[in-house]
């Protein structure tokens, strides 16, 4: 076996490269036996055996059952030891906190959720989130935390993990979110925009490493996650995909960010509620109006359900929202040329009432070449979507991005991953 010093990031030898590749091949399911590894990599039998033995000794792989025979002795399968570490996922929304724990294969083991207004500020919000995480961790295997994902509803400087002027998060600008989690769990932390995590969940679900996709979330706010050849495009300052604050021609609505005419101020969930309440006050009738007059809370989800059930007021609100969202998406389609657009968020409950209008505007306003193979579909609208996306982001950062920096230590450390003390 090679000495530990030769396995450091600073000594990137063919031995190190092939060892990393073999661990990741088994982890990703690209090969599960030594002969398969040899066929995929072109490495000789002796080299494969040596590298696999190293990976087993270092704790990354283990032998499994015997696989099918191709004529000789049946080969023993290999497994990635996904039970060695846990991943914490924290999804902060405008009006909720959702946390979960996964093992290294990415499946969510335990989760919990509560309503919460993120405008209450970082101190109180993160104290609450950390308490929720501790409770969920207590219900999962007692193994080290290997990585933490935090999703927030605003732009993020991905390198530092700090929010950048998030319009709906007063008091959060530049706040060191990463430090709070590192101090609590002594593990590397990545902070990202919540819609990016939803896009990563779609990549994982579709099992397509080269996906060109836009995930557009229309909830309380509006944002888009951009996948280019399977990689998230975040932009120079973390603002890529922030279509909620694109100007809508002719609109004079005041946005929560302080500007006039933002897409969010016309078509965001809070704008839908505002317009519905105004219509009811002016004498609108129907199921949605009666719902409001009966004292039931008016929410974007309630408006979407009413539209799907045929309420005229709700349908008019949802269709108007979909038209302007579709116009903004069309601009992205012309610039970005995705193969798939996924629509998620609170409006998903309206189903085809919303999607049909978006499709019409996108196909009408986009270049024919850009829409030739374009699919516009609805998300699964599963509460676990951001959690699975967060786990996927941590797995990508650990094993595809930073693995060479820390694998000789047997598990990731904050210093090795982020270069901090």
What does this structure look like?
The protein has helices at residues 14-28, 34-41, 45-57, 122-137, 177-185, 194-206, 263-267, 269-281, 287-293, 300-308, 312-336, 352-365, 368-371, 385-401, 403-406, 414-418; strands at residues 61-66, 76-80, 86-92, 96-103, 108-115, 145-152, 156-157, 162-163, 189-193, 213-218, 222-228, 231-232, 340-344, 375-378. With 421 residues, the protein is of the alpha/beta class. Mean pLDDT is 92; it is low at 1-12. 44% of the residues are buried. Helix 1 (14-28) packs across helix 3 (45-57), helix 2 (34-41) packs across helix 3 and helix 10 (300-308) crosses helix 11 (312-336). The strands form four sheets. Strands 5-4-3-6-9 form a five-stranded mixed beta sheet, sandwiched between helices. It has a five-stranded mixed beta sheet with strand order 12-11-10-13-14, with helices on both faces. It has a two-stranded antiparallel sheet with strand order 1-2. The radius of gyration is 24 Å and the shape is globular. The protein has 16 helices and 14 strands.
Q: Output the structural class.
A: alpha/beta
| Integer average pLDDT | 92
Beta strand count:
14
Supply the number of helical segments.
16
State the shape: globular
Low-confidence stretches: 1-12
Radius of gyration: 24 Å
Q: What kind of assembly state do the chains in view correspond to?
A: single chain
Taking the alpha carbons of the first and last residues, their distance comes to 30 Å
Helix and strand run: HHHEEEEEHEEEHEHEEEHHHHHEHHEHHH
Q: What kind of sheet is the major sheet?
A: 5 strands, mixed
Question: Helicity range of the residues?
Answer: 40-55%
Which strand-content bin applies to the residues? 15-25%
Query: Strand arrangement, largest sheet?
Result: 5-4-3-6-9
